[in-house]
Fold this sequence. Notes:
Layout: H1 7-14, H2 18-25, H3 30-38, H4 45-55, H5 59-62, H6 64-80
Amino acid sequence: MKHxxxxxxxxMFKGLSTAQVTSAIGLKNEKxxxxxxxxxxxxxxxFAFKLCALYGVLSxxxxxxxxxxxxKEMEPGIKQVKPKKRKITKP
Length: 91
């Protein structure tokens, strides 16, 4: 399953090479970054946060299709959740 993303576009917008990104986020090789960019694999949560920090974006911006897919999948469950009403008091 491919994971469409905006990783390559975000990297190019920042004017960074794959070598620069690999070094900046602490990857051991560029192949991993290429697999993420091709949508072959997903980065771990730690590397996703590192990419977001480096590019100055949110994870949903890097993976908009995945964000939409997850939101749609969770929609029925979210509607069932009824938050408790709590009174907010000042400390």
